[in-house]
Every structure is written in structure tokens, then in C-alpha cells.
Amino acid sequence: AEVTGVCSTTNLELVKSLGADKVIDYTQEDFSKSGQTYDIILDTVGKISYSGCVRSLRGKGIYLIGNPTLSKIVRGLWTKMTSSKKVKFGLASSRTEDLIFIKELIEAGKLKSVIDRRYPLEQIAEAHRYVDKGHKKGNVVITVEHNNKT
């Protein structure tokens, strides 16, 4: 598979290091206006133009929306009913077999997580402020200390 990543200028090298074959800087270029088409478009943030993504899908392409708005859900249902393209959205699965599969991918080194920052639970408000700025690179982790004292 050929993977194209879309990110800001500051994340170009990070996305390349994660294995993208091609990286597009969304501050310089709108990938949906290039004429390139894709089998799958994964929008984890939910800020990409819906119509641009659907237009950029191949005939039976799939648009996966990780954080859908009500508008995108309604438009997705309409797209499913009126074309061969598919729009899927939803939450992460917590089925045991899916979690085991993800665990195996991690253990095999095929799934890489990117941790931007870690905050102790006591600094959760600061962590939220950082995330809300919209410039994090990867995930922000909240650590919880366990006391096994009885």
C-alpha cells in the first residue's frame, strides 16, 4: 500500500518517520484539490472538508471519520445511499479480539504510538489547556499513580 500523510509543516518529518510514502503540508496545499484519488481516507481529527474527501475517493473508496460532527454523520448517510463510496465513523472497538490484534501489532513493532507529553493526574487541567491549543504532536498521556498500601 502507498500511504500519503497530511499534516502541518512542523510535523512533516515526524509523519515521514512513521512510514508515509508521501507527505502533504496542509498549510501549503489542499490534498483534495490535487486530482489524486485514494482508496481510503482516514480523518482522525475531523477538520478536513467533507466534500473534498468524498471527491478524492476512488469509485468504491472509504472515508473513515474518527471524530464526526452531526453534519458529517448525516452527509455520510446520504453518501452511502447515493453512491458506491462508503463513509464510516464511530468509536474505537473494545472487543477482546480487536484488542489482542492491536497488542500483537504493537509487540511486532508494526504499530507505533507517538507520545507528545505526559502529565500526572494532578495536572490534568494543564494537559487539557495544552491539547486545546491544537498543536500537539501525537498523544498526551495522563499518568495515574497506584498506591498498593493497605
TrEMBL record:
Q: Which Pfam families did the record assign?
A: ADH_zinc_N_2 (PF13602)
Q: Please give the InterPro entries that the UniProt record associates with this protein.
A: Chloroplast_QOR (IPR052733), NAD(P)-bd_dom_sf (IPR036291)
Protein name per UniProt: Alcohol dehydrogenase-like C-terminal domain-containing protein
* Organism for this UniProt entry: marine sediment metagenome
